[in-house]
Amino acid sequence: MRSSGRTVTEVARELGVSSESLRGWVKKARAAQDTGSGPGSVRAGRAADDRDEELKRLRKLTAEQAKTIEILKKATAFFVKESDR
């Protein structure tokens, strides 16, 4: 196996599965990484970065809108007092 330096047969035996099953899973995982559809793929990393950027943008927008709402509440209270005079 790539990172452990052990053979597929050794890892399969340790996991209690057949070598052929493990080879098939490894092949599918590598193909998913190469096409950018697996969890460890470059595309998945970019998607996480995109989500982080979107979350940052939305939090900033929420803070701006909260400030706007607070200003409008104060303005409303001011104008209500003015109209009562």
From TrEMBL:
By its UniProt entry, which SUPFAM superfamilies does this protein fall under? Answer: Homeodomain-like
What InterPro entries does UniProt report for this protein, alphabetically?
Homeodomain-like_sf (IPR009057), Transposase_8 (IPR002514)
In this chain, the stretch annotated as Disordered covers: 28-51
An example GO biological process term is: DNA transposition
The cross-references to Pfam families, in alphabetical order and at most eight, read: HTH_Tnp_1
Q: What one GO molecular function would you report for this record?
A: DNA binding
Say which domain of life the source belongs to: Bacteria
Q: What is the protein name given in its UniProt record?
A: Transposase
